[in-house]
Write a sequence for this structure.
């Protein structure tokens, strides 16, 4: 069973100002109407390879 990728906890995730494409990924370089991890899974059949947990303990 694959571990679920939570984009909001990734350093590459960002929120856009575009209502039609509110989710973005700097690692893959795209904006999407759904979470980037879902787009990547649907496109490639594999889980995101670039997930990197944000460090909130600065």
């Amino acid at each position: 069973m694959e571990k679920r990728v939570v984009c909001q906890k990734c350093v590459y995730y960002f929120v856009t100002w575009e209502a039609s494409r509110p989710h973005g990924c700097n690692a893959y370089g795209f904006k999407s109407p759904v979470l980037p991890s879902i787009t990547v899974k649907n496109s490639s059949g594999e889980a995101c390879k670039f997930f990197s947990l944000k460090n909130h303990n600065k």
